[in-house]
Design a protein that fits this description.
about 190 residues; alpha+beta; Glutaredoxin; Glutathione S-transferase Yfyf (Class Pi), Chain A, domain 2; 2 domains; 4-stranded mixed beta sheet; 4 strands; binds glutathione
Length: about 190
Amino acid sequence: MKLYFNPRSRATIAKWLLDEAGAKYELVPIDLGKREHKTPEYLKINPAGKLPALVDGAARVFEGPAICIYVADKYPEANLAPKIGAPERGRYLSLLVYATAQVEPSVGDHLMKQQTAPQRGWTDYESMLNAVESELGDGPWLFGDWFTAADVMLGSMFIWMRIQGAKTGRATIDAYVDRLMARPKGLKVG
Ligand SMILES: N[C@@H](CCC(=O)N[C@@H](CS)C(=O)NCC(=O)O)C(=O)O
């Protein structure tokens, strides 16, 4: 497997999951300054011209949540995903997609001090925090004692916020982020 990678990009999230899964993979460095992510070759892998992208034999996968789902399913022994048909599977997929569909843009609105227009498809920042708090419950992870790829994807949204110097001010979420950042294989930004 090849992960198209830059240490200062969202590809660090995919790398974290590959490491948690114990996967064997190769990093293909992409220089964003040289616009290597906009070359015709790279656009054949990810037509959006963005990182991350993963190539596994004939399979190509792009968008962070899709990569997380793909990798967690490929390494069942790492126990990072509920199996197809398991009752937890629906909530697991929902939380993974929710991370970039709603958490990420509402954090963006918050950090850029923009009002959230509901027509855009995501909720305002405080409503998003309420939802995450409710899903996290007593933790320590989104599925209680079971750490899954959903923690990697959704937690990364808050780790990015933390890296930019911002805490949520919600004790349960901030403690969750502390736990995620303390994981030995956790997200490392270059
Ligand atoms: N929704 C995408 C976002 C990907 C994304 O925006 N990647 C950034 C790096 S963090 C990128 O490639 N930016 C370069 C560009 O858009 O030119 C995902 O989750 O994979």
